[in-house]
What does this fold into?
Amino acid sequence: MPAQLATETPGILAMRAITISHLYGSGGGEIGARLAQRLSWELVDHEIVAQVAERLGISVHEAAARDEYSESFFARMLRTIQVTLGGPPNPAPLTVPVGELQAVYHRTLVTLVRAAAEQGHVIIIGRGSQVVLANRRDVLHVRIVAPLAERIEYVARREGVSVVEAEVRIRRKDRDRINYLRTQYHQHSDNSLLYDLVINTAVLDLDSAVLLVETALAAKASRVGLPVQELGPAAGQTPYPGEPGDLPLPD
It folds into this structure.
């Protein structure tokens, strides 16, 4: 596979984002980080998104001072959000009643994910971004999975915990993520129709997964401008020359 596939593919700059949903311990976060480095795109990790979302309402300077990108990507994104919401460029701290915090947090997070896609060339890890940006053809949606045993080994090795502790963490994370998507979006993360590409890292190494995502990104980029009638598995197909051999018709 060509080493410079993404940068040499015409139209790939038209793609605004890649969302990566992943089973905890499947290597999805690492795949996202390697993709960001390879494509020179911004990585929007879910912990960072949560931190920035919780901070919405404070000044851009204060938010940037707490963020490793400083006055670059997140500063620009916060400005975009403030303009979108009609607020001042340097708003006062946001005061929210405790009972409304969850709803406000969720709305802010959705706004943040959409603003990241508008900024463009971002890789968004988790936070329901595959649902929030589902209707955008200029976004590639990826799901990374692996069997439980392999995920336990990954978490134990990467986080330096016992096998027992790794399994506890994985089961807790799986439960929380399923509940989050069900509660906030009435969706299940295992719904394959939410994704353009699902990769199982049980055998495939992470670098191979990165190349698969890159290939899918280029393929989807080539179809961004096509009319709807030219999309889907039926596009360009002709009828079978005879009756389908694997589907005998009843007498």
User: Anything to note?
Assistant: The longest strand covers residues 139-145. DSSP finds ten helices and five strands in the chain. Residues 58-72 have pLDDT under 50 and may be disordered.
